[in-house]
Amino acid sequence: GDSVTQTEGQVALSEEDFLTIHCNYSASGYPALFWYVQYPGEGPQFLFRASRDKEKGSSRGFEATYDKGTTSFHLRKASVQESDSAVYYCALANNNAGAKLTFGGGTRLTVRP
Amino acid sequence: NSKVIQTPRYLVKGQGQKAKMRCIPEKGHPVVFWYQQNKNNEFKFLINFQNQEVLQQIDMTEKRFSAECPSNSPCSLEIQSSEAGDSALYLCASSLSSYYAEQFFGPGTRLTVL
User: Fold this and answer.
1) What are phi and psi of B86, to 5 degrees?
2) Considering only CA atoms, which of A28, A39, A53, A54 is closest in space to residue A89?
3) Which chain B residues are within 8 Å of A43, Cβ to Cβ?
4) Which residues lie below 8 Å from residue A47, measured CB to CB, with a gap of 6+?
């Protein structure tokens, strides 16, 4: 079955640091890839999506590029802020699987002021 | 801010009791998904609907889970006989399409089974 792996379970940074969260996927077909962010007490919020190889998705200073060769969709941000502290999820939707989302394990980002 | 409305936000039940939660999808979104998020932040897809029809669902072998999305009424997810292992955050999401479209989540219903 489809799967998403996020390497980092927790990341701790200081404000203005560079962020990378690694995401790799395994899926049949050609899935769409997503990043979601979840704040305490809320449901996941859609950040952005990419649907084809080499497509870059971006929002709020975060970005990721769909790489079919390495089956990756790594999240990056050049300069994090304390308000970015949250849990980030990489996910895929495979139309062969009815477009439900398959989520990674999540990465808890803590940004120190 | 979530435009998907879920009620109640918190639900506490004893083992063996019914637990029912509701979801109003974002206006104009015909596709609705239900997910379960456990305390380890793991997501489990439960079921999805397009309009009132089931698109896909997990093999609810326990048969304790049922869901519907009637016309002109909120969608609902019901657990017939709650178990301690059902304690989780139940998330409803809606989408414009069943094909690769982003899903928008509500705040969830946190179920605690005592």
Assistant:
1) -85, -10
2) A39
3) 2, 4, 91, 93, 105-108
4) A34, A35, A36, A37, A57, A59, A60, A62, A88
Sign of CA dihedral A89, B29, B63, B91: positive
Amino acid present at B89: L
Check residue A111 and report its DSSP letter: E
Looking at residue B72, its amino acid is N
d(CA A54, CA A92): 16
Nearest CA in chain B to A40: B107
List strands edge to edge, sheet with B65-68.
Answer: B5-7, B19-24, B75-79, B65-68
A97 CB neighbours in chain B (<8 A) are 56
Average pLDDT per 10 consecutive residues for chain A, totaling 113 residues: 94 98 93 96 96 96 97 98 98 80 97 96
Please count the other Cβ atoms lying within 10 Å of the Cβ belonging to residue A104.
26
Query: How far is it, in rounded angstroms, from Cα B93 to Cα B19?
Result: 19
Helix or strand (DSSP H, E) at A68: none
pLDDT at residue number B2: 57
Q: Tell if the CB–CB gap between A46 and B103 is shorter than 8 Å.
A: yes
Name the more confident of A26 and B97: A26
Say whether residue A100 is in contact with chain B using an 8 A CB cutoff. Answer: yes
pLDDT value for B61 = 47
